[in-house]
Specification:
Order of helices and strands: EEEHEEHEHHHEEHHEEEHE
Number of helices: 8
Strand order of the largest sheet: 1-2-3-6-4-5
InterPro entries: GIY-YIG_endonuc
Number of domains: 2
Protein name: GIY-YIG nuclease family protein
Distance between the termini: 44 Å
Number of strands: 12
Length: about 280
DNA sequence: CTTGGTATATTGCAGGTCTA
DNA sequence: TAGACCTGCAATATACCAAG
């Protein structure tokens, strides 16, 4: 069974991503783009939203239009900077389902020990079996999509800086943290390859990195390309990625650090690197 | 717009290290 | 122990910028 994921809106001016996975529609956006969000039809349906801040989250539901609740929170809460919301494309999500989903998410966050801004666990209204299974299905689509496409684990504890990778203690290799994920490799080029593979196979990041992608052979500047590159003297300068593209890898350690910085700047997200 | 100088980037080789 | 893989380095190329 194939899932069709359709990313319907992507722009460079804002960081709004809309995913349609029938029958679910998921939107991830920055708070600053609220005015643009309000123009999306996807924001005018009932659904569940999660406000994300540095150290807390808020789970809410909208039985009317999601955007109205978001605009309210824009006035009331100052700590959030990002929002994820989802609903049914056709808008057919009833109150018992939004109650159920909200409660389920809050419970799950609580169970995982993630700090929430919610005062209550939400309503526990009656929900019939069919609605419940439909709601559960939606939630698993949302979780899957976030994890596999955007690589965002809703339930991941982000502040686990204390969790030191054993390889670090042994002074081996290179340790990278990006978007809550960590990578450990015993060489800078390997670590670079792994992180770039991770980033360039995720559409949401890739769209911001087109300046580094070429149709032809990769170069040191456009380091992702469609073909492998071998130097005049026969040195293989690229490595093939999972998606079949080729990544220029023949970099010195400092050049690799530069690439990390370029990508981090472009994404507006930090890439923490420690060489040891 | 040129010039000339400086900073930064690129290149692939030499010589390590790892692994089968 | 050969071959693959890694890394720093020096040579070279390119970008940048201020001054004429």
């Amino acid at each position: 069974m194939t899932k069709h994921i359709f990313i319907s809106k992507e722009g460079n001016d804002n960081s709004i991503s809309v995913f349609n996975i029938e029958p679910v529609v998921i939107v991830i956006a920055d708070r600053k783009d609220l005015s643009t969000i309000s123009k999306l039809e996807e924001a005018h349906i009932p659904g569940i939203y999660i406000l994300l801040g540095e150290d807390k989250r808020y789970v809410g539901q909208a039985s009317g239009e999601i955007i109205n609740r978001l605009l309210q929170h824009d006035k009331n809460k100052d700590w959030w900077h990002k929002v994820i919301f989802f609903g049914r494309e056709d808008g057919h999500l009833d109150k018992s389902q939004t109650d159920y989903l909200e409660n389920k998410l809050i419970t799950k966050f609580n169970d995982m020990g993630l700090p929430l801004d919610n005062g209550t666990a939400g309503n526990l209204s009656y929900i019939d079996k069919l609605s419940k299974s439909k709601a559960n299905e939606m939630l698993s689509i949302v979780e899957d999509t976030l994890l596999n496409v955007v690589n965002l684990d809703l339930f991941e504890v982000e502040d686990d800086v204390q969790a030191v990778d054993p390889l670090i203690e042994e002074n081996l290799g290179v340790y990278i943290r990006f978007n809550g994920q960590s990578f450990t490799q015993n060489s800078a080029r390997k670590a670079y390859g792994q992180l770039m593979e991770y980033i360039f196979t995720k559409p949401i990041y890739r769209e911001k990195l087109s300046q580094f992608i070429t149709d032809g052979k990769p170069t040191t500047v456009e380091f992702v390309g469609q073909f492998e590159k071998i130097s005049d003297r026969g040195v293989k300068l690229t490595r093939e990625l999972k998606n079949g593209e080729h990544l220029y890898v023949n970099f010195s350690r400092s050049a690799i650090e530069n690439k990390f910085n370029l990508v981090a700047d472009q994404l507006g997200m930090p890439i923490e690197v420690s060489f040891s």
